[in-house]
Each structure stands twice: as structure tokens, then as C-alpha cells.
Design brief:
- The chain is an alpha/beta fold.
- It contains 12 helices and 16 strands.
- Strand 6 and strand 7 form a beta hairpin.
- Helix 1 (13-24) packs parallel to helix 12 (355-373) and helix 4 crosses helix 5.
- The longest helix has 26 residues, at 133-158.
- The two termini are 19 Å apart.
- The protein binds uridine-5'-diphosphate.
- Residues 86, 95, 149-150, 153-154, 157, 169-170, 172-173, 270, 272 line the site of uridine-5'-diphosphate (UDP).
- The site of uridine-5'-diphosphate has 13 residues, from helix 5.
Length: 375
Amino acid sequence: MKPYDYLIVGSGLFGSTFAYLAKQRGKRCLVIDRRPHLGGNVYCKEMEGICVHWYGPHIFHTSNQDVWNLVTSIVNMNRFTLSTIANAKGKLFNLPFNMNTFYQIWGVTTPEEAKHKLETECAEYRNIEPHNLEEQALKLVGRDIYELLIKEYTEKQWGRKCTELPAFIIKRLPVRLTYNNNYFKDLYQGIPEGGYDRLVNGLLKDIECRTGCDYLENKSFWDSQASTIVYTGPIDEFYDYRMGHLEYRSLHFEHELLHTGNYQGNAIINYTTHDVPYTRIVEHKHFDINNFTSLNSPLTVITREYPLLGNDCEPFYPINDIRNSQLYERYLTLANQETNIIFGGRLATYSYVNMDEVIASAMAKFYLSEKINNK
Ligand code: UDP
């Protein structure tokens, strides 16, 4: 008999949720992570009493009641609501695209005027089925907004033309005829009080975890440790890139401690034009809306987020263009033939999923695995 029922490779939200559910069912779990800390990309680091989202801003939002129930059974969520600001050549605009944005761009003040303007702007794209991000954006908001707030930002971020990116990416952003700057449409939204580490540590409570362990470096040893492997790393790396590299968008973060209490007055400001090399500046204390020690501190921490591409960079976002999607399908065919490996999370399923979707899929895959094992 092997020492563990599940070896969970990667302690991000997929791995942590899976381990939590397995532990609750009395399963013997071991979680390993090659980074020196747990939590994957939701990991937060405290700097001068400020909780810093170390791998980019994470705002939890969901309409999935089961996911919300699970998360809030472990941590208190604060009432943070994301309302991003876009800075285009020094001028500020509200995001997502709503009455405030339409007023700032076109001077329209009523929903009727905005609707009319949008219809005129988008008229030539109304009947097209968008094949790429550019066509989708033009169909949604027209050329003025596309050129000011979308085109250069997206191309800077993804390192490729909007015509070479899938349409679904821009559909993540709502378009509204109300003065509502809430970036998300979901029923629930917030950030764990005290940071995401509380959520991850809560999920992994009383579970054996080892950091600094690279599964693929000693795969046969780790495979001997558990009946089922839950793998959350990049799928192409799992198969030693035998069919080629999948491309991922990476990021470079420049964290800076500043001797000022409030640098930009908002959690996230996007820089949507090419003249600025970074895509956004995050000011972390604004996420922690119930933490007055952090909010009133004379210090602040900001992060400039720069785009990064290349096979040697750390993977963050899958680039779901045609070539990569076809390559992923070939890896998926291999993955589907495995009998004791579960692939989960953004990297192993090569999908641009949000945190709640990751948790939901960990729940679904765990229950399915138990069903199969109990047969
Ligand atoms: N986007 C944009 N301008 C912005 C913000 C977003 O064009 O100021 C587009 C861009 O193509 C981006 C997509 O919307 O990749 C999704 O943005 P989101 O904020 O959801 O990205 P994430 O938070 O996942 O980095």
C-alpha cells in the first residue's frame, strides 16, 4: 500500500481545494510545491503591515453558491468591489465600459444617448460573428473606445495583435448603460480578510505540505508515494514538451515601498497606451478595506506589472490562439489516457479560468475521482 491516497502537485487554489475535500473524506494527502511557499499565484506577502498580492491582484468574485459557501466557511471576505481606472496618455477613464466611460469619451449623459452612440459606432459590426478580439471589441464598444482603452493595452499585455487573439478575452468585461464601475457582474465579490494566505492555510490545515519540491525532477519517486496524482503544473511540461511548447503570457512584477500614505487613490490603474511600458499599477492597501492600520499607514506598497513573454518565463496566462489550442488538444488526448492522474487548474488545463471556476472544478474533479475509486 502506498503511503498516500493523493499526491497533490501544486498548492494553488485547485490543489488546496482538492486536498481540503480529500482530507475531509479521511484521505491521506501530501501536497508538494516547487516554490518556497504555498498558495500558488494567490500568495500574499506582508510588507510593513501591508498585504501584497505578490503575483498580481486577485479579486475573488463568483455567482456559484457552493464555491462561495466553501470559501466563506474558511475565511471572512471583505466587501472590496473592484472599480478599475484606465489611464490613457494622462487622461483617466472608468472601467469597465459604462455610463461614466461613455460620458468621459463622448460627453453623453443619458443611457438613451449612450445607446444611440454605441449603436452608431458599432453599426458596421452588428451582424458579424467575431473571429478575434479586435472584431469582438469593435462589435461591443466601437472604434473610439477600442483604440483608446483596448487595442494598445491588449497588444502590450499579450505581445500580439488583437486580430490574433480569441474574442472571448474581451467579453470578460461588462458593457453597461448605468453609472456602475463594478468590474464584475457576479453575485459575490471580496478579498479574504488578512489575505489569501488565510484561505490557503485554512484549506491546507492539518495536511502534510512540503515546499521546494519539484515533482518532475523526481517523478518516479513521487509517483510511488500515492495511488492518485493531482497535477496542477503546465501540461506541456508534464509531457516534457514532446509535442512542442504551449505559449503562456508571463508577468514581471516590480514591487516598491513608498513613503506616502496614498499613492494613487485606487487599487488598480491600467495604463492602456504604448507610451507606458507597464500595463498597470496596483496599490495593495486599497484591497484591504477593513484594515485601518494598513489604510492609515504613512507607507504604501505599489506594484508595476510588466508584460513578459517567452518559453523561459514563468507561465501565468494561457494564450488560447488557434495554434496553442490545437497543441493543447493533442496534450489533452494524452492526458485522457492516464488512469491515476488528475489534471487541474489554469496551467494543467490550459484555460483562462478565474479563481471561483478553479475551486468549482476542484470540487467536481474530487467528487468524480471518489466516485470512480469507490466503484
Ligand atoms: N482590457 C483592455 N483594457 C483594459 C482592461 C482590460 O483592453 O483596460 C482587455 C484586455 O484584452 C484584457 C481583457 O480585457 O486581456 C481581460 O481583462 P481582465 O481585467 O479580465 O484581465 P485579468 O484581470 O485576467 O488580467
